[in-house]
Every structure is written in C-alpha cells, then in structure tokens.
Amino acid sequence: MKKTGKKTKVKAIKSNLKQRAKNMKLTSPEYTQYRNPLTSRYASQAMIQHFSELHRALLWRDLWIYLAEEEKKLGVPIKPKQIQAMKEAREEIDFERVREIEKSLKHDVMSHVKAFGEVAPEAEPILHLGATSAYVTDNADVLIQREAAELILSKLSFCIAELGKRIEKWKALKVTGFTHFQPAQPVTMGKRLCLWVQDLIWDFEELQNVLNRVRPLGCKGATGTQASFMILFQSDFKKVQKLDEAICSRMGFKQPVAVSGQTLSRKVDAWFLNALSNLASSFSKLSYDLRLLQHLGELREPFGKKQVGSSAMAYKRNPILAERITSLSRFLMNSAHNSSWTHATQWLERSLDDSANRRIVLAESFLAADAICELGLRIFSGLDLDKTKIEDDLQKHAELFETEERMMRGTLAGGSRQALHEGIRQATMSGKLKKKKGSSQSIFCGAAKEQAENFLRMELKPFLGKQSNRLKKKSQIFGADAI
Amino acid sequence: MKKTGKKTKVKAIKSNLKQRAKNMKLTSPEYTQYRNPLTSRYASQAMIQHFSELHRALLWRDLWIYLAEEEKKLGVPIKPKQIQAMKEAREEIDFERVREIEKSLKHDVMSHVKAFGEVAPEAEPILHLGATSAYVTDNADVLIQREAAELILSKLSFCIAELGKRIEKWKALKVTGFTHFQPAQPVTMGKRLCLWVQDLIWDFEELQNVLNRVRPLGCKGATGTQASFMILFQSDFKKVQKLDEAICSRMGFKQPVAVSGQTLSRKVDAWFLNALSNLASSFSKLSYDLRLLQHLGELREPFGKKQVGSSAMAYKRNPILAERITSLSRFLMNSAHNSSWTHATQWLERSLDDSANRRIVLAESFLAADAICELGLRIFSGLDLDKTKIEDDLQKHAELFETEERMMRGTLAGGSRQALHEGIRQATMSGKLKKKKGSSQSIFCGAAKEQAENFLRMELKPFLGKQSNRLKKKSQIFGADAI
Amino acid sequence: MKKTGKKTKVKAIKSNLKQRAKNMKLTSPEYTQYRNPLTSRYASQAMIQHFSELHRALLWRDLWIYLAEEEKKLGVPIKPKQIQAMKEAREEIDFERVREIEKSLKHDVMSHVKAFGEVAPEAEPILHLGATSAYVTDNADVLIQREAAELILSKLSFCIAELGKRIEKWKALKVTGFTHFQPAQPVTMGKRLCLWVQDLIWDFEELQNVLNRVRPLGCKGATGTQASFMILFQSDFKKVQKLDEAICSRMGFKQPVAVSGQTLSRKVDAWFLNALSNLASSFSKLSYDLRLLQHLGELREPFGKKQVGSSAMAYKRNPILAERITSLSRFLMNSAHNSSWTHATQWLERSLDDSANRRIVLAESFLAADAICELGLRIFSGLDLDKTKIEDDLQKHAELFETEERMMRGTLAGGSRQALHEGIRQATMSGKLKKKKGSSQSIFCGAAKEQAENFLRMELKPFLGKQSNRLKKKSQIFGADAI
Amino acid sequence: MKKTGKKTKVKAIKSNLKQRAKNMKLTSPEYTQYRNPLTSRYASQAMIQHFSELHRALLWRDLWIYLAEEEKKLGVPIKPKQIQAMKEAREEIDFERVREIEKSLKHDVMSHVKAFGEVAPEAEPILHLGATSAYVTDNADVLIQREAAELILSKLSFCIAELGKRIEKWKALKVTGFTHFQPAQPVTMGKRLCLWVQDLIWDFEELQNVLNRVRPLGCKGATGTQASFMILFQSDFKKVQKLDEAICSRMGFKQPVAVSGQTLSRKVDAWFLNALSNLASSFSKLSYDLRLLQHLGELREPFGKKQVGSSAMAYKRNPILAERITSLSRFLMNSAHNSSWTHATQWLERSLDDSANRRIVLAESFLAADAICELGLRIFSGLDLDKTKIEDDLQKHAELFETEERMMRGTLAGGSRQALHEGIRQATMSGKLKKKKGSSQSIFCGAAKEQAENFLRMELKPFLGKQSNRLKKKSQIFGADAI
User: Fold this and answer.
1) Distance (Å, whole) CA C422 – CA D225
2) Which of A50, C258, C334, D248 has the fewest CB atoms within 10 Å distance of its CB?
3) Predicted ipTM?
4) How far is CA B219 from the centre of its chain?
5) Nearest-CA residue of chain A relative to C317?
6) Are C331 and B338 in contact (CB under 8 A)?
C-alpha cells in the first residue's frame, strides 16, 4: 500500500492554508487554527472564560497587590503610592507586550512582572517582593480550580434535582430489569434512576470534600522555607506566618498549607481531577443505560424538531447526547490520569515537568466536566418515556418474572430452594418455560417503589435541602452554546 | 530479521516443561506455574492469605449463616437444626469438589451452595434463600476490602511515625534544596521529609474516608428490589429493611447501601483503588527523591552485609528498595484504573464484565499497596545519612544561596528588586558569580526548622495520637518474607 | 457510618486463617494464598507453565552454557569438563536453596549463579564470565516473550479460521444493521463478522511484525560497552561481535540489537504489550457486539447443559463468556500501559524501577491474551444463531430500510437528494413513516454478500494459507482448564 | 477548613470577565477564552492550521467533488455544470452560516451539505449522493492524519540527523556510565546517544509502517454495504468497486479498506496514536537523561542570553526544555489511550461515542508530538557539553571502573570469577575500595567507540540515506513560535 503525491504534501500544510484563509478573508484564528471542541462546541462560556489567560492574569495581579498590601501592613517599607499604582494599572494588561517580553526572557511570570512594572512604574521596585513564581501560579490555580469546582457542584445539583423529579414521577412505573442486558426481574423506572442519583450524590460529596480539604500554597518562597520572608521580617517567624495567613484570608481560605516545596503538592491536582473523573465515570455509566433504553425505545433523550438523525438515513433518531456523554467521559477519565502521574514523578523541592501538562489538563478536565453536566441537564429535563413500549416489554417477560416468586413460595411451603431452582432451569432449557406474554398487572416489583420513596426522603431531600442556594440561578449556571 | 527453529517452539511450551518438572520431582505448582511476584516475593503473608479462596469461602459461609439466622428471627420457618448444620459444617470446604461442580454448573456461587449443601444436608433446602450471588460475593468483597484497608492504614501509620522520628532528628540539618534538580535555596532534611509525610497523612485520611463512607450491599435481591424478601415477608417492607440492616450489623456495619442494582455500585471499588493509587503516587514521588538523594550520596537506603549490588560491578550499592517502590507504584496506579473503567461501562442493573477483572485487580492492588508499605518501613527505619557529603554539597553552592538574601536586603535598602535580580542573573551568565565554595555556617534556611517543628506539633502529633492503637502491634502488622 | 468490631480485625487476618487452614488440612498454598485467577481459572496450562520460575531458570542455565561454550570456541581458556559439568547439572535446580541464598545476597541472578556453582563446582570459576545479570534476564525474557507470542499467534489463527467458516455460512444471511444501536440499514451476518476478522488479522500482523523486529540483547556487558568481553578478547572487537552473534544464533535469532545500555531498550516490552493490547481492544469490541446480539436473541454464545445462569433467576442464559472477554480485555489494556510508562521513565544506562513491574505485567498480559483467545475460540465454535428472531427483527424495520433506496431512485429520477431526505425525515417525525412490518424478501443488503465473498477470497484465504502450519495442532494449542 | 466569600464567586465567573474584557477592549477570543497551550505556545503553525476547521472543511468539499466527478464518470446522470458549480464555490465557506444551520439540524455534515448547496445551488440536488456522513469525516480524517504523520516523520528525521552529528563528534568521549543512577562502568557520550537514536529510528519505522498499512474508508455507505451505490449502479458490484477505488486514488491511496461498518475501524486511530505515544515514550526517556546530565553539569540544553531561570533565584539555569518534553510526553501518552478505549467500546456497525473524543484527541496528540519534535531539535542542535565536568566525574570513579577489568583478568589467570567478585564487594563494603581519584587516561570504555561507529555506519547512515528528501526543507518543516 503506497500513497502517491506524497512529496508536495508537507509544503501544502505549510503554505496553502494561510493563503486560502487570506483569500477567504478569514481573519479570526477561530477557523484557521486548531480549536479545542470543548471551547468551540461543548462547554459553557462561563467555564471557557474561567480558564482564559485574562482571568489568570487578573488573579496574578490581585495576588501581587495582596502581597504588597500585606507586607506593608507587617512593616515592609512599601509606599502607599506604590500600591495605588498597582491598583490603578490592574486592568491594563497588554498581552502582546507580555508575549514579546517572554520571547527573550523565556519565563512567563517574569514577563508579567515586567509588563506590570511598565504600567505601574512606581511599584516596579517592590513587585513580587519575596515571592517565587509559584506564588502567583499556584495560588491562582487553586482559586481557579475552586471556582470551577463550585460551578460543577452547582450544575450537578441541578442534574440531581431534575432526576429527583423523574424518580418521584416514575417511582411505581414497572419496567423490565436487566442483568447481563438479559431480562432479569422487574424494577421501576424511578428506582433505577435512584442508582444514577446515588452515584452522583457520592460524586458531589467527593468534590465537596476536596474543596473542604484544599488549602492554598500561601507564600512559602523559592524552596518552601520562607527564607525571603524571614529576611524581610528579620527572622520573625510569627510575622512570616501572619503574612502567609493574611494572603490566604484575602484569597478566601482559612489557612495555607502547612509545608510545601516550591509548589503545592501536586497531589492536590489529583484530588480535583480524580473527583471529576469519578463524576465522569458515573455519567458514563448512566449514558450507557440511556443508550440501551433508547434502543429498547423505553426512554429517549430529547430530539429537536428540525434535528437530522443521519445524513444518509433520514428516519434515524439517535441518542447522540448520551453518546456524547460517553465520549467526553472517556476523555475526562484519561485526562485526569495525568495529574496522578505528574505527582508521582515530581522530584525533591519541585521539577518543571508538571507545567506544560497542567496548563492543558486542569483546564480541559474541568471543561469536559462542565460539558458533561450541561448535556446531563439537557437530557434529564427532556426525557421522553414510552409507556406502550415499556408495557409491551414487560408482558413479554411476565412468565420469567414469576419464577422467583414461585421458588420463594415453594421453599416456604417446605420445598428445597435448590430443587425448585433446578426445576425452573430445566424447564427453561427444554423450552417448557416459554417466554409467553403475560399480564403486567400481576408483575411484582418487590420494594422498588418503597425504596424509591425511602431514597427520596432519606437521601435526596436532605441533599437538595443543603443545596438550596445553588438551585436558584439556573440560567446563570447553565449556558453551553451547544450543538 | 527472522528467527530460526520456530517450528518446535510451541510444542516445547506444551510438553517439555511438565516432563522436566516430573523428572525434577517438582510437585508444587509454586515453581512450575506462573506465580504473581507480589505473592512470591513482595507482599506480607497476612495480605496474601487475606485474598485467598479460603478466606473468601469462609466469609461466604458466614454470610449464609447470617442470612438464615436473621431470616429465622424475622419469622421465616427455618429450623434450628438447619442452622446448626450450617455452623457445624462451616469449615468443611472441599475445594476440589467445588471445582468439580463448577465444571458443569459454570457458576461459582451455585457450586459453593451445592458443596455446602452436601456437607450440611439438613440446611440444603433453605440455603441462600432469597439471595442472589451478589449477596455473598459483594458483601464478602466489602469485608475483604475493609480489612485489607485497615491493614494498609496500620502499616501507613508506622511509616509515618518512623518518618516523624527522622523529621525530629533532622529538622535543623541543612541540605541543598533542589528545583529542576538544580541547586536552589537550602532546606533542612527534616523539613523536606515533612513533604513526604504531609502527602502520606492526606492519603491516610482519604482511605479512612472511604472506610467511613462505604456501606455494604446487604440483601437486595436479584435486581435490587428485594422482591424475594418481600415475598418471604408477605410484602412487609419494614421486615425486609430489618433483615437488610441485621445482616449489615452482623458484618460490623451500621447501615446497608440505600439502593443497588444486582450489585453494589462499582464506584465503591474505585473509591478504594483510587485511594490506594494516590498512596502509590506519594510513595512514587518519595522514591524518586530517595533515588536522587542516594545518587548524591546524602541519604541512603539500608544495605545488607552480604548484599550484592550487581552481578558485574561488585562495588555497587544501588537504591533497589526505592526503585522497587517506584516500580510497584506504577503497577498499582495502572491497576487501579481498572476500577473506574469497570464502573464507567456497567449496564443497567448489572453486567458481568466486572467479574474477572475485579477478581484480579482488587487483590493485586491491595497486595501492591501492602508491599509498598513494607518497603517504605524497611527504608525509613534504615535510612543512612552522610553528613560529610551533605556538608560538601552545601559548601559548593554557598555563594548561590546568598543571592536571594542579597536581593531582599537590597530592595529593603531602596533598590529595585527587578534590577537586583537582573544583576545577579547577568553575573551568573558572565561567570562572575562562580560557584565558589563557601562556609555552610552562614547558610540560611529560612524557617525550615520552625516549619518542621510546627508540622510535628500541629499535624503529626495529633495524627499519631489518634493512631495509638494501630501503633502497638508492629510485628503483627509487618512481615513480608521479602527479598 | 462507623463499623464495629474493628479492633480485632487486623489480628484476625494475621493469625486465624493459618490455623484454620491447618485444621482443615489444607496444605497446598493454592487455596490459602492469593492466586491470580488467570492461573487458577482462565489461561491455558501451556501459558501458565511458560511463565513459571522453572522455565525461566532453565533458560538462564541454557544461556550460561551458551556463553561458556561460545567463549571457549573463541579462545577463552574454559575447559571441556567445565562445560560438561554445567550440562550435567542443568536440571538440578533447588529452588529452596536459591531462595535461601537470595535472602542474604538480595540479588536473584547472583543467587542462581551461586546455586548453579554448587551443583557444578568445576564450572563455578567461569560461570557468568563477562556477563551482567541482564545477560540472562533480558535474553531469557525475549525468548519467553517470543514463544508466548507464537502461542498467541497460533491461537489467533484458529479464532480467525473459525470465524471464516461462519462468514462463509452467513455471508448472505440478512440481519438488521445498527448504528448508535438503533436500526440502520440491513447487513448480512457474514459481512458483519468480516469486521471482526479484519481487526483480528491486523492484530495478527502487528504482533507478527513485533516478532520480525525484535532482536535480543546478546552480550553487551554492564553498561552496554562490552568492556568485559573486550578484556577477555584483548580488545579484538571482531571476536566480541562474533560472541554476541553466536549467542544470538544459539537463541534462534539472526542478530543481536545494535546497541544497548545495561538492558535492552524497554521499548521492546511496549511493542509486545501494545500489540497484545490492540488484540484485546478488538476482542473487547466484538464482545460488545456479541452481548448486544445475545440481547437481541439473534446470536448466542454456547451454553452448557447443566450450566446455571443465575443463582436467583434460574431461567437466565447470560453471555458470560463474552462478558468475560470484555472484562479481561480491559485488564490487559490497563496492564499493557505499564510497559510504556516503564520505558518512558528509565534513566541513562538503566534504572531498576523496571524490574518488579515487568515481573508482573509481562506475564499477566500474555496470560490474559491467552485466556481471551481461548474464550474466543470457545464462543466462535459454539455460536448459536436464531433465524426466527433475526427474521422477526428484519420485518419490523423493513419500511425504514426502504427509505434509502427511495432517496437514491428519486435523485436518479431528477429529484433533489436533499429534499427527498427532508421528506423522509418529516414523515418519520410526524409518525407517517411508521415502523410497520414488511417482508424481509425485498430487503436489500447492498453488496454485503459480495463484500464477504471478496473478503474471504482476497484477505482471509491468503492469510490462512500462510498459517497452515499453525492450524494443524489445535489440541496442543488450546487447553484452558476453564470454567 | 472553610472558605469565605463563596457566594459571589459563581456569578463572578459568569458576568465580570466579559465586562472587563470589554472595558479592556479585548475583542479577540485569544485571551478571553481557554486556549489550548499547544496552540498558543508549543506547536508549529503548520500543525495548528492543519487541524483547523478550514482545512477540514476544504477537504470535505474536495471529497464531495471527487464523489460527483467519479459517479458521473461511471454513468450517474450528473451534469457538468453541477460539478462546475461545486468547484467554483469550493472556497466559499461561510462558517457562521454553517453554525447557524447546525443549531437547528444538530448535524455537522448535513449543515455543511446545506451550506455548500446554498453557494452551489445547481449542485444541491446531487450533493453527497449515495454518501453517509462518514464518507467525508472519515476520509478527511485519514488524509489529515496521513499529512500530520508525514510532518512528524520529517521533523523526526531532522532530530535523528542532528543527534547523528553529536554521535560522530562524541563517539570516543569517555563519560561516567550510570545504572540505578549510581556510577557504573564508563561509556562514551556518543555511544549513549546511540540509545536515543535507536529508539527514535524504531519509532520512525513504526509510524512509517502505520502509513504503509492505512487505507481510507472509501465509499461504503450507511452501514458499510454500499447499498446506496449498488442502487445507483443497478447492482453492478464492479462499478461500485470502481467508484470506491477511484475515490481512493483521488485521495492518493492505492486501495480502500476491504470492509467497514459505517466508519473505518477505530483501530486505525489507535495505530496512529500508539505510534505517537511510543515516540513520546522515547522522548520522555531521553528527556530524563538530559535532565540528569544537566544536573551533573556534563551536558546542558541551550539557554538564551536574556533567559530568566527563576523569578526568585536569578542564578538558575534549568533544563526547562527537557522538562517540557517530559511534560508533553506524559500528556501525549495519556491522550493516546483514548483511541484504544474508543475502539474497544464501539458497538456493531458504529456508535457515536467516538465522535467528541476523536475531535479532541486526534488533533491534540499530533500537536503534542509536533511540539515535542520541535523541542527535540532545539535541544539537540544547542547541546552544550562541559568537558571539564565530565573529566572531573570520571576521575572520581576511576578506581571503581578498574574493578571489572581486574575481575576479568583474574579469571583468565585461573582465579574464580565468583571469588574475585566477592573480594571486590567486601573491599567496597569495608571502605578499602575508596572512591579515590584516578587518571581518566587509563579508563577503559570497552567497545563503546567501535559500537558508535558501527551504529553510524550500519543503522544511521542507511536510515538518513532514505530520508534525504525529508532532510531538505528544514525551515519549512520547523517553526513553533515557541517560548
């Protein structure tokens, strides 16, 4: 197998596209450069902006202002006008200039320091005083991750609340249960959805728990010894601690991490990303359920009026949103693995093989989680249930469903459970137990309804009660400009 | 590149080895079959036995006894002699017989039911009454994971306590700090070890948290609706719940899971294995530190008197234990991924594509964690520190270390931090700032010692205080017959 | 949620089980220690023995004999009786003695050298002469991987051949095609199976290609410079090369690797394990297809006469073999990742963080691949097709199937493809296009049959032609004592 | 640990940033949205554009033109002016219009069909005739992957050639060899680099082999049966095959894939991405070597004149490019895993859970590979070797290095290799064998130089000979606008 025309290909990549774009008057890089589809298609604007350079740069400037202000309070001779200058220039960020500087310095934080100094020349001498780059990068990253996690928690609350309504509605609606994707014993649709919600509540708790545990880096200096700050404060450790705590307080945290190398332990990333990965795992599981149920025709995701199912098969109505959840969950789970490997291979007080990797995976993991939650809510609020199909499926398996009851009653009446089991097994094998249609009236779903009620009362209600604040601003929370 | 003699190879695999083993009178499968090296080399007997078929089979029988007893208490007509028979036959497990049965039934639980019935014939009719296989498999698995996790927590406590002693001892011992594995600012050895301990305490908390959250399956029946139990108890949901709770209480848990499909959510495995993976990640990180420090000659793992470093280079003294930690951590991290993928791809009330995978990865992940902790304690208790080498390294970098102080003092004296930074940078580039030897006396480690003391007081002491029970039975806890 | 009775648990792990096993007269470690289920349940004896310590130890001794013989031929003063002694003692391997030695030496190869020297004392002075441990370990590992890969290739050939028969038989058998697991356009069952076979042939080629590329380490010495051999041969590089090549020739390879550190590049492991992982990926895909088709009832895996489908639902007939393939494929794919990470994190001339990891994952990856192929053949040779169910499903979708033809013919007749497509779409949405039953006679499967014939002729036949040797000894090749 | 100020955070994400950006007159999304750093920082413009929507859209239009032209040639009544219309409108792509359509259709290919029809209304009725979406998506993806792979191969050739020069130069330059990162036996720097090149050549071969094996989808229709084309050509299979082949020929391939579902087997993605992952693994390994050698000071990556090593420690000269390789390699290896999992979980004729995942990982894997190669060449062409440091390190270990020679000569003189080994071992342990400085003159590197020469002659030269075309257009090939 050989391909022809190979020789001109590489050149083609290099030159033609630029020219074409020019001819086509395509000036925005949006279509002429690779764009991550989470940005262009799947995630919400809120999350996309949250991981922008602008947001990060503003946080850095805030952190430099906090540092100067708190150092000043504790006695470092910083002048009010220096702080004033920083505050006034805070939003004068010339990204092109930063990039130009970075080309020679090859250091992103120092380029921002220099660019900030240029627009706030009074403050230049004391900018970043005592700090190492990780002061701005790591503290800002924790702030970014915390806010992003809060957004995910809010979205997740809505997903759970929405499913809760369906559980209430369908708690007694009998449906065929499946193990091995073979008809098993009947369940109710509401009881089945409890399984999804239980997983999601657990995921919520896990991410919430990460937020409860996480502490920012604070100001620890080049190798975590706070040496530069000890110098600034004449070896007064109390003052150094106060600075550390004051900065954290400004960031909205109670306490900085007790010890660090140059950076926060990279384990903290793994906490966040593992929690997101576990969320993805639950959504993946439920997306498979949805796809199988849409196959059965029992439950369907929403379908737009003008939506085209297939470019070839015009009659198609595919579970493309559920499939997209499977797809993005897989992406998120693999993406999250990065954070553990990064932690596992760090060296001593820090090595920089974390940096480029984190720039991508922290953002893209949260963007994927955001997209998944957006898809989740779209599906859950538009679920379309087909009672006729459900009824039809139940009737087909009615005879099978009865056998467990027969075995129980037989044993209660003094028979051997084991012999009864074997009897049913042989009847099936020999074809005597046919899958003949039966009435769905008499189908027994055990305590499925009671369990669902119990679950709503004991698990879901208390959960939603605690999230009442989150559940008030849906239109602000959601908003993927999604396709 | 082609190989010769290929044709006879496959046959060789098939026939020769058996014959040879016979000739060599090797009857034990230990050497003639593949054996997982965690079993044959690295893990402790306690953990190896814990994941044996015998342990699992005994737990299954216990669970069947619990079920019959509790059903009886709640009114199911089970006779005292039936329970008596089960109890008496509890330890009569003929594994060969089980296997023989399984060959025709192709169902492991049913084979054990049948084999148990054969040795306890009075109980046969009511054995496994109302239960599905997951009743024994999933409940036993949670018991196994809980005990295994407890063992890991105990081992981890000792590792942390051992490191705590070193922190105390070396809290003021100055050493070269490294970022990018280039000399950075100095730290103290004790302060560095705080980083390891902080990670390990966080891992401990995470695994502890899993134990706090986990609830067993209880008795939920074939598709989780408790239908069989509702039949046994004439649809009295209260009684069904009581049975569920009573069984859990017998297992030492307060409460069963609220809802389930046929099995417990596979997310629970992911909780355990992710926590172990995070532990592996911390040990991996510290094993890299150890290997780099042994390269420097500053810190060394223990080395046996007769130990051979290399079959070719007799003078070698390699950090093989630390390298083994890296190696097994990598294994554990990859192994743990299985649990998330398994959860993510389950279908509806359950699919069986979890089973074979779980049989391997649950056990091997805990065995690897066990081996890692054993290695950890061996290393931590035998750490060999070379003060001469440490001193020598410090002196080499003394001039570099001073520069941060110079920059701070210069700024305090009214200079521009940025200009001072650039001055030092240029001096280095031009070779004016040489790495000339300096005195280690004047080397300033910032608050490294104070931080270590603070860490011991505020973090480690309270932690160890809570683990006092665990810290009493070291000889019982450890015991890899390791090489 | 707290558990009770915790305090006695850890002790229980430690002490009770041993006592119980004693009481139960269970002396074999088979049931009292963890055993990998690939060994106890799923893989073939051939593969299990292949990864035994005995097999490895015999290969090591062979390699020591090769070394001495070839050194002798090239002039090193080794005496015939020394070689004679080695050959005579070759199968005198006392594993207990080796282990005893290793306890003090902490070096596996040196322990085997010493134990070999004890049973062949004349040879002791020249044993392992010029070699480093990797000489035996890495060369033996390549031999083991090569033979194991050959076994997999043979098993895979049978799987492919078996599927080929089904393709021939079912090439014209119309079945419902599914995209998104929604009825799409019809295919034939034989054509569908071509997709499986195409993947498997590609996997075969890839593994074959690894075998074509792989070269053994040969004798390269402690850091790969062949220094020890240059000394033995007075810096005669030609002789050193001859030795290297002679050893490889004895191993059945044409050529050693050109350069190495202490060990072969760990990339070679990744070649083997990635190829196995790709095989697992294909089997995973087809196992999902099988499970979905068994749900539909169109195709079923074999089911034993006494087989029990479920311990609760006696009528169940589950695709447990296909599910087991999914399960083990997932395991294998995760296991294989280890090999890439190990390679990616090696240091300079070698670091030992490969060792413990490779001991597990090389063996277990091949064992899993073996088990998967065994399962594959079991399923493929017992496939049970239900024509009535297939026919029934076809008829249900007949009207949908016609629409593509309508659209094509409409366009040929001058209509707009786009308008016709929209017409069909609207008809479906409005319910005008009902899924009414149609005749399966007129259902058009395009060129499915012709494609299958073409595939058999152009791809499968030439493939099987080349594997004729492999396809002769089925009973020797297969043999998992499987459940 | 609780954070304060939480309540306003989520709103902040949503609203403030947009307003700020407006105030700051930041109109480009470049800084106000997340941008993948591979696009904004690390990869070359050629590769970034290659994965743009524009490039893809142009390929789709080409494929529609090919289809119409080849159908026409084979007799489908398509008019010349219809084809003319398509060609003329080829570059009139209004992406905003496409997006608008997609919002209602929710189908990307159909939106492009409609938009193309709008600018080429004559062609509208026959656009996409007989095709399913995968006709454009999958064929374009193979074209994109092929060209991207060619670009990687070219970059890799330059990397290898550059390293070849260093091997030639340093083939006899003695350096300390390291196993376990402990001094082992000496090697030469050139010989060490051969290990890197050997890995990279193998990776080149593997990616080349993928290009040799890959075949495009061609035109197979909705479920791979070519039914629509059979209708267009009155069931003339020969004509259908001719169309399939003609399209492939237009794409520069000899042959389409023999069979397919709706899409090409997703295994093909895994071929490409596994090959890239293996490349990443090699670069990761060599980046670790580089970082360790820069620690030793023996070898250093290039460092810009104005480059800032650290924002806190102005004297720092860190291996940030090598660390970035480690970082991006880790990313690429994890990203590549997606392709295998996607393949492993596909269902029947296709499921759409591939789509969103592939949109991200195909592009980002190639972008990461591109960035890694760019970094590779930057480092390799600027390698800075410090002979003084190398010499100094050698001298420190001279006494250790001699021991292997002593052992060999002792054995040749009739001694026991084993006894000599133990003698050296004990001398080391007791401190008799001190690491005293020795002359580097007498240090013996075995055949390191001869091996390097051999490698250059037998492996590298033939390799570069075949790549002569690739090695001509460096400035066209490279060009990351990198920092």
Assistant:
1) 23
2) C258
3) 0.94
4) 29
5) A182
6) yes
Query: Which member of C312, C328, C367 has the closest CB to residue B131?
Result: C312
At a CB cut-off of 8 Å and minimum separation 6, what does C155 contact?
A: C370, C373, C374, C376, C377, C477, C478
d(CA D318, CA A355): 13
CA dist C165 and D18 (Å) reads: 64
Q: Which residues contact A84 (CB under 8 A, 6 or more apart)?
A: A122
Contact between residue B219 and residue B244 where contact means Cβ atoms under 8 Å apart: yes
Whether the CB-CB separation of D349 and D293 falls below 8 Å is answered with no
CA-based nearest residue to C395, from C242, C138, C183, C197: C183
What stretch of H or E contains C285? helix C267-296
Given the structure tokens 């270990």, which residue do they identify? Answer: D397
Contact (CB<8Å) D38/A361:
no
Summarised one tens digit per residue, pLDDT across range A367-414 is 999 999 999 999 999 999 999 999 999 999 998 899 888 888 999 999
Nearest to B307 by CA among B297, B296, B318, B292: B318
Q: Are strands B182-183 and A384-385 parallel, antiparallel or unpaired?
A: unpaired
Rounded to whole angstroms, the Cα distance separating D78 from D127 reads 10
CA distances from A345 to A338, B91, D158 (A): 11, 47, 29
**Cα A381 to Cα D19: distance, rounded to the nearest angstrom:** 31
Where does residue C236 rank: exposed (0-12), middle (13-18), buried (19+ CB within 10 A)?
Answer: middle
- Measured CA to CA in angstroms, residue B383 lies from A306, B162, B290, D383 at distances of 71, 10, 10, 37
Q: Helix (H, G, I), strand (E, B), or coil: what is residue B202?
A: helix
Q: Where are the alpha helices (DSSP H) in C314-354?
A: 320-344
Nearest CA among C338, C324, C335, C303 for reference residue C372: C324
As to burial, measured by CB atoms within 10 angstroms (0-12 exposed, 13-18 middle, 19+ buried), residue D477 is buried
Q: Which residue has the tokens 């017998």?
A: B250
Test C225 with D129 for CB contact under 8 angstroms.
no
Closest-CA residue to A329 (of A303, A294, A365): A365
Q: In the annotation, is C55 catalytic?
A: no
Q: Could you list the mean pLDDT of each consecutive 10-residue stretch along chain B, which spans 483 residues? A: 40 56 74 93 94 96 98 97 96 93 92 96 96 97 97 97 98 97 97 98 98 97 96 97 98 96 98 98 98 97 90 90 98 98 98 97 98 97 96 92 89 92 88 76 95 98 95 80 58
Going by C-beta distance under 8 Å and a sequence separation of 6 or more, which residues neighbour residue D73?
D246
List all residues of chain D from 175 to 204 with a beta carbon under 8 Å from chain B: 179-182, 184-185
How much is the pTM? 0.96
Nearest 5°: the CA angle C252, C258, C261 is: 105
Strands (DSSP E) contained in C359-424 are 384-385
A162-166 own/partner pairs: CB under 8 Å, 24+ apart? A162/A377, A162/A380, A162/A381, A163/A193, A163/A196, A163/A197, A163/A200, A163/A380, A164/A197, A164/A456, A164/A460, A164/A464, A166/A190, A166/A193, A166/A380, A166/A383
CA–CA dist D384, D372 (Å, integer): 19
Residue A15: how many other CB atoms lie within 10 Å: 13
Residue A180 annotated as catalytic: yes
What are the beta bridge partners of residue B299?
B385
Place of tokens 């192994």: B335
Measured in whole angstroms, the distance separating CA A212 from the mean position of its chain's CA atoms is 17
Nearest residue of chain D to residue A136 (CA atoms): D311
Strand D187-188 with A187-188, pairing: unpaired
Taking a C-beta distance cutoff of 8 angstroms, is the pair C1, B255 a contact? yes
Residue of B198, B161, B195 lying closest to B175 (CA atoms): B195
SS3 C44: strand
- The gap between the terminal CA atoms of chain B, to the nearest Å, is 38
Sequence-distant (≥ 6) Cβ neighbours of residue B462 within 8 angstroms: none
